[in-house]
Amino acid sequence: MTKQMTADVVVIGSGPGGYTAAFRAADLGKHVVLIERFPTLGGVCLNVGCIPSKALLHIAKVLDETHEMASQGVAFSKPVLDNTKMRAWKNSVVSKLTGGLNALAKQRKVEVVTGEATFTGSHQLQVQGKEGLVTVDFTHAIIAVGSESVSLPFIPEDPRIFSSTGALELADIKGNLLVLGGGIIGLEMATVYSALGVDVTVVEFMDQLIPGADTDLVNVLQKRMVKKGIHFLLKTKVTAMDAKQDGIYVSMEGQHATDKPMCFQQVLVAVGRRPNGGNIAAEKAGVTVDARGFIAVDNQMRTNVPHIFA
Fold first, then answer.
1. Which CATH superfamily is domain 151-271 in?
2. pLDDT tens sequence across 13-39
3. CA dist 240 to 50, 180, 243, 244, Å?
4. pTM for this one?
């Protein structure tokens, strides 16, 4: 059975952009419907991005400090690591914040609909969720659908190969790990896993980490991470992966490539993200989306359709 809803403003995506827009519109007296495909509000940042990674970085910082204090006359026994408890604590941090967002939405009478949204016209969209199909007629729409991790065509399907979302689960904190990509996400996870005792190698195609960032700052960060035992392979490109029983065999080319494939117990793929603009049938509303999923807007964040923003 199809449920019918109407809204002054419909917001697709409940990340920092989406929920902020939804709450502001509600504060201004608009009837708002907020659509989120995942079970909790907050988007990638809150659920599987910035917030849980910072929680794990806090654990890494504490572990680092226990080692550093030895030179200052305070020695600790070797920490006993329990990845199940670490994961539960990280999830509890996220739950507190998502619960807060739910309360704020309820307080403002923002109607939250869970499911995948697609446009069916310039003033209508539908949401396919667990409870069936919901149709929403709207006056204005705000597209805030965020992005998703990019993979590479030669990477096989294997539980030992994961994105940043999988890395946050701390399924295995033993052996060695290859981080594919020297951007912010890759370096955060490299820091966490290294602090937990994993032998970490980061491979980056460009000639510096965090390409585009200030070189002086990046050099300081790289020296600090090297001191912690993290290995860096700059100007090096991964060309192939082969998942075998004893590990993931990775072939490379470039400055630090080896003659034979290198073997890793786990591989984190953090080569960037791409926008989700092409996943919502925006063209049915007349909204222009380019081949990469980007939606062009003016200086008021308005798309080529005047009543739809992004």
1. FAD/NAD(P)-binding domain (3.50.50.60)
2. 999 999 999 999 999 999 999 999 999
3. 29, 12, 10, 13
4. 0.93
